[in-house]
Amino acid sequence: MKSCEVNFDGLVGPTHNYGGLSYGNVASQSNSQQSSNPKEAALQGLAKMKALMDMGFVQGVLAPQERPDVGALRSLGFSGTDAQVIEQAAKQAMPLLVASCSASSMWVANAATVSPSADTADGRVHFTAANLNCKYHRSIEHPTTSRVLGAMFADQKHFAHHAALPAVAQFGDEGAANHTRFCRDYGEAGVEFFVFGRSAFDTRYPAPQKYPARQTLEASQAVARLHGLSDDGVVYAQQNPSVIDQGVFHNDVIAVGNGEALFYHEDAFLDTEQMLAELSTKLAKRGGQFKAICVPRSQVSVEDAVRSYLFNSQLLSRADGSMLLIVPQECQNNERVWQYLQTLTSSGGLIREVKVFDLKQSMQNGGGPACLRLRVALNETELAAVNPGVIMTAPLYGSLTQWVEKHYRDRMTENDLADPQLLLECRTALDELTQILKLGAVYPFQIN
Ligand code: SUG
């Protein structure tokens, strides 16, 4: 049976803004308080989805969340009508209002970890929603994420959903941003590669000194257990703490994998040689031949990698067996990175083509092409069981573009977040969206 990898991209929500909320994420911190353009952000994301669809890839869409999250504000003690809750929060605790308004659910690489059916004990596709508990504004995403994923992948014969791990730092889980899967073919059993930043319970693992390590080993191990993965199909590796301290807050800022290939920076991991050997041996047992493509620090520094988001790219398989890299425009703007990419694609290796996308609105918050997508490998039967409303088509692209044009503002600053009208605009837009994507009621205002 034929299988493929489907990229589900997060649709940017109507409150996209630069809140400076993510300590350790250089772009989020340095663009704090700038004015944003939610309309442009959503259209840039949709243009990427359309381009991938036009190239022949199966593309899906993942809905944004209701913001401001008045329920979250109520649980922090603000009360009265929704408008009063927003007004009180704006007066008494602006940082909490900003956090409750973040459109951060757009970075769906952090929505969940997904294991394809070929890897799991019960032969179903498994999803574990990420608790994202390192940052308050992200920790409030998972209840709605779970409902949206449930509405997209509803058939329990094929899809199994797990609730987010316990909401404590020891089980910090950032989803697929620290998870990669290697395989010979998407439909065959593969090797799932979990990268963690620290261990919560074992002091032998070093930890970064400056910035937080968001993903713990214990969280990754729990996800692997929940998904029923076998030991010979799993590899754990630790991120180099020194790159976390340079702004690599997720592994997908320093490495990307697809098929049998891992494209990574020389400084990305600890114990790199041992890790590569384990990946190679385990993939060989699954019939695959592991290919490591290392970018030397002499050609691209960690700083250039963080600035350009070279590794936050999408590595996609082409029909002839070669690969294509989808990179953000910031790679083209960086002379050394662009030079490296020219050399890479002309060397006759696996990666033959680079396509550049303008995702500046998301990039300024530290979200590149890879952050914006959640990969789900599916066989034909499973793909047929996905809610067809969320699979991108030319008419759906048209409807979503019109929907954005109709509902989104083209400028947003911190002051705008205190406008109670914004909540109403967001709800009106999302109500219409659930009809366009045929999701049913998934938002708090629809179910409470
Ligand atoms: O969690 N930025 C996100 C970016 C997530 C990128 N995802 C991956 N690398 N997979 C984060 O740090 C910034 C929001 C603000 O500052 O307004 C933010 O949440």
Determine the N-to-C terminus distance. 42 Å
Tally of strands: 15
Indicate the CATH topology: L-arginine/glycine Amidinotransferase, Chain A
Q: Structural class, please?
A: alpha/beta
How does the major sheet shape up? Answer: 3 strands, mixed
Low-pLDDT windows of residues:
none
What are the distinct ligands in this entry? N~2~-(3-carboxypropanoyl)-L-arginine
Strand order of the largest sheet: 2-1-15
- What Rg, in angstroms, do the CA atoms define? 21 Å
Shape: globular
What is the CATH level 1 assignment? Alpha Beta
Architecture (CATH level 2) name: 5-stranded Propeller
What is the beta-strand fraction?
Answer: 15-25%
Specify the oligomeric state: single chain
Work out the helix count: 19
CATH superfamily descriptor: Succinylarginine dihydrolase
Helical coverage, percent range: 25-40%
Instruction: List the domain count as a whole number.
Output: 1
Keywords:
binds N~2~-(3-carboxypropanoyl)-L-arginine; 36% helix; 448 residues; L-arginine/glycine Amidinotransferase, Chain A; alpha/beta; three-stranded mixed β-sheet
